């Protein structure tokens, strides 16, 4: 069974940097599963910044929707796989299906695979439910979906961290 590590926190809190540091301890080759899509110049810049931080030990796999299939298909190939990020994946699912229960079913499928995997998995997700209640239906649906997905991932993870202002706090494991 693989080790599952879940890292959450606010925007620009150091989540990805912590996840990369943990993954590097497993040695090469490392898989980076990117769920974000470059829809504009600002997002392209973010993606480029993340790529430049990683070295030659990383192989990037871009998958906006079929995360479970990519994880399953690369199990045993990498020393560790890092998924960055869960909330972008959920955004993609919600926009593709306009159906939060269907999106959450993808999360349940993914967590159901954990006992059968051999490669350590590290997940990065945003903590989006600590602010005010959003004013529109889509934003409220997304906030609730992200909260439920984070809860499922944290419950099934071996280790859970939250990052605040660049400082990690271990919550589980």
TrEMBL record:
Keyword vocabulary terms for this entry: ATP-binding, Cobalamin biosynthesis, GTP-binding, Kinase, Nucleotide-binding, Transferase
Enzyme class per UniProt: transferase
Pfam families named in the record: CobU
Tree of life domain: Bacteria
UniProt-annotated catalytic positions: 50
EC number: 2.7.1.156, 2.7.7.62
Catalysis performed (reactions): adenosylcob(III)inamide phosphate + GTP + H(+) = adenosylcob(III)inamide-GDP + diphosphate; adenosylcob(III)inamide + ATP = adenosylcob(III)inamide phosphate + ADP + H(+); adenosylcob(III)inamide + GTP = adenosylcob(III)inamide phosphate + GDP + H(+)
Alphabetized Gene3D superfamilies for the sequence: P-loop containing nucleotide triphosphate hydrolases
The keyword Lyase appears for this protein: no
CDD domains: CobU
GO molecular function, one term: GTP binding
Keyword GTP-binding carried by entry: yes
One of the protein's GO biological processes: cobalamin biosynthetic process
Pathway(s) annotated for this protein in UniProt: Cofactor biosynthesis; adenosylcobalamin biosynthesis; adenosylcobalamin from cob(II)yrinate a,c-diamide: step 6/7; Cofactor biosynthesis; adenosylcobalamin biosynthesis; adenosylcobalamin from cob(II)yrinate a,c-diamide: step 5/7
Family matches, as InterPro entries: CobU/CobP, P-loop_NTPase
Residues noted as binding GTP in the record, renumbered to the chain: 9-16, 34-36, 51-54, 62, 84
Role description: Catalyzes ATP-dependent phosphorylation of adenosylcobinamide and addition of GMP to adenosylcobinamide phosphate.
Family (UniProt): Belongs to the CobU/CobP family.
Name of this protein: Adenosylcobinamide kinase
Organism: Geotalea uraniireducens (strain Rf4) (Geobacter uraniireducens)
């Amino acid at each position: 069974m693989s080790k599952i590590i879940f890292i959450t926190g606010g925007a620009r809190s150091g989540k990805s940097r912590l996840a990369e540091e943990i993954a590097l301890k497993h040695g090469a080759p490392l898989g980076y599963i990117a769920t974000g899509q470059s829809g504009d110049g600002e997002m392209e810049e973010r993606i480029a910044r993340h790529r430049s931080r990683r070295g030659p030990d990383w192989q990037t796999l871009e998958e906006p929707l079929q995360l479970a299939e990519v994880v399953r298909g690369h199990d045993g190939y990498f020393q560790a796989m890092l998924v960055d990020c869960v909330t972008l994946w959920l955004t993609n699912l919600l926009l593709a299906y306009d159906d939060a229960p269907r999106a959450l079913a993808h999360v349940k499928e993914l967590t159901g695979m954990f006992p059968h995997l051999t490669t350590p998995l590290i997940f990065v997700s945003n903590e989006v439910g600590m602010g005010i209640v959003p004013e529109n239906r889509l934003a409220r649906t997304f906030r609730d979906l992200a909260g439920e997905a984070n809860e499922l991932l944290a419950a099934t993870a071996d280790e859970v961290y939250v990052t605040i202002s660049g400082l990690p706090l271990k919550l589980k494991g």
